[in-house]
Amino acid sequence: GKSLDVTGLIITKLDGTAKGGALISIAKKYQIPIHFVGLGEKEDDLLEFKANEFSQSLLNIEN
């Protein structure tokens, strides 16, 4: 079989019940960046990952 090097992560379905904490653990463990997060079903719902905003949303902090 063949394998590929993973150069980054994308997480989808964050508009549902998923909080994405597992994504942070995987990124940290394997030392790979998070590039995008998906917040819905449309192409426009795929957003660039912003660590500060993401961490605030995990903690339910509002600006």
Radius of gyration, in angstroms, nearest whole number:
13 Å
Helical proportion, percent range: 25-40%
Tally of separate domains: 1
Terminal Cα span: 48 Å
Q: Number of helical segments?
A: 2
Kindly state the number of beta strands: 3
Strand order of the largest sheet: 1-2-3
Topology pattern, helix = H, strand = E: EHEEH
Briefly characterize the structure.
This protein is of the alpha+beta class and 63 residues long. Helix content is 29%, strand content 17%. It has one domain (9-58).
Features:
63 residues; alpha+beta; 3-stranded mixed β-sheet; 3 strands; 29% helix; globular
What features would you describe in this structure?
The protein has 63 residues and is α+β, with helices and mostly antiparallel strands. It has one domain (9-58). It is built from two helices and three strands. Strands 1-2-3 form a three-stranded mixed β-sheet. The chain is globular, with a radius of gyration of 13 Å. The termini are far apart.
How would the blueprint of this fold be written?
Blueprint: E1 9-11, H1 21-30, E2 34-38, E3 46-48, H2 51-58
Parallel strand pairs: 1-2
Antiparallel strand pairs: 2-3
